[in-house]
Amino acid sequence: AKMAAAASELLAGWCLFGLALLAILIFCWVYVRKYQSRRESEVISTITAIFALAVALISSALLPVDIFLVSYMKNQNGTFKDWADANVSRQIEDTVLYGYYTLYSIILFCVFLWIPFVYFYYEEKEEDDGNTCSQVKTALKYTLGFLTICAVLLLIGAFVPLDIPNKKNSTEWEKVKLLFEEFGSSHGLTALSFSISSLTVIGMLAAITYTAYGMSALPLNLIKGTTSAAYERLENTEDIEEVEQRMLRIKSKCRDGRPLSSRDRRTVQQLEERLRTLRRRERHLESIEKSWWAKFCEAIRPLKIVWGVFFIVVALLFTVSLFLSNLDKALHSAGFDSGFIILGTNLTNPLNMLLPVLQTVFPLDYILITTIVMYFIFTSMAGIRNMGIWFFWIRLYKIRRGKTRPQALLFLCMILLLIVLHTSYMIYSLAPQYVMYGSQKYLVQVRSNMLYGVLFAFLLDQCIVTRTYLFLHKFWFFSAVYYFGNWAFIGVFLIGLIVSCCKGKKSVIEGEVDEDDSDMSDDELSVYYR
């Protein structure tokens, strides 16, 4: 009966994971379709973006499953369950490990082959719209560079010495042979871990840039709201009249037949471009004023304020938890050479206390982890939409609803994929004990009497460590980089919070109308305001 009950609960866990997969696919499809350009949409880029984002979210959904399985093997008194013998435990651990192998391998395939090839293919398609064979060859040529980087990362990860004994009388050949033996014993875990950790560092930089700012921008924008469409339309009408009067004054100079000076011609050209932009704004504002969606948003304005307050409270909770976790590492870890890793917690961390408690009532912790991941996705998207996609000081693309180009969409999903990869380490930083051991307990021996401990596990020989933790901390120097990245994340969040507080209300068509838009984009945008 106990075996049947255990099997049924494990089956329920995997069924919930299956439902999460379905929800992830639906979310990715809706998300990509919402932002892709209707006029420039491409089937291959759409499928690539949906697939890449879905794989990243699925890999993050495997984290609570990993934690649930290692926690479910033990009783509340610290002993292993009857069915959780060494063979069963090993099979469960291997199943989760193979799941990570598969998902992370697919992520490497997307990052270093599929997404770059599709991106460069459409870049060449815009320049040479006739020769498909030439476009494929050029795209493959550029993609080869990404494959070379991937191969280098895998080789470094495969043969980097992690635990090589220092024998003075050993030859160079014996040392090389030992490296190959270590690679074979790890089954490629170190190679894959090094590659994924390298991508996670890039995801950390993206999270510092976009997520940290989005965590402050999103809630404050919800609280402050947008300006009135009627008020903006009145101001826009006044701007149109002013521009038209300036054009008339300049053109009146040539009524007697004299040509305009080069300076006046440049000014007229600039004013004409400005006038076209203002008239597009006029059409958009008129559509919003008449739309049922704008009226609905105005009706739920109090709900937006509530959500904004909730999001800012969650952001502050995350920041405090991250600060306490990093402070704990700074005070009680072995330092830089160990990657600032600690096996226990010495400072009280709200999320680290909450998650193990919720883990005892399945699936509350799963719901909370999913909520955290989705929160990071939405705040990251808010940061990207406010800032755009930049390469240092060069702005590459804008992300706008219904008007995002295929190349920008691929960039967007690439950034979100890397941020979701970093989310696993962020959750570890917020709740290290939960990510390592879940709710496992261990036996404490005092004066030869076995007492059942009520403390959470910190001993590797008595408890099973999650496969996620093994992937995250295979290399100590990556852990050190993550540690300093967390401090940078906190700093950028605080700066973004100050900047967002000082900013005024956003325009009701913020980012939707730009001077480089064509008049055809009006038809593309109008579908949202009917």
From TrEMBL:
Residue ranges of coiled coil: 261-288
GO cellular component, one term: lysosomal membrane
GO biological process: protein localization to lysosome
Gene that produces this protein: Lmbrd1
Membrane topology: Multi-pass membrane protein
GO molecular function, one term: cobalamin binding
Sequence similarity: Belongs to the LIMR family. LMBRD1 subfamily.
Protein name, UniProt field: Lysosomal cobalamin transport escort protein LMBD1
Keyword Membrane: yes
Main location class: membrane
Domain of life, source organism: Eukaryota
Record keywords: Cobalamin, Cobalt, Coiled coil, Lysosome, Membrane, Transmembrane, Transmembrane helix, Transport
Subcellular compartments: Lysosome membrane
Keyword Membrane in record: yes
Transmembrane parts of this sequence: 12-32, 44-65, 98-122, 142-162, 189-213, 305-324, 366-396, 408-430, 450-470, 477-499
InterPro entries: LMBD1_LysCbl_Transport, LMBR1-like_membr_prot
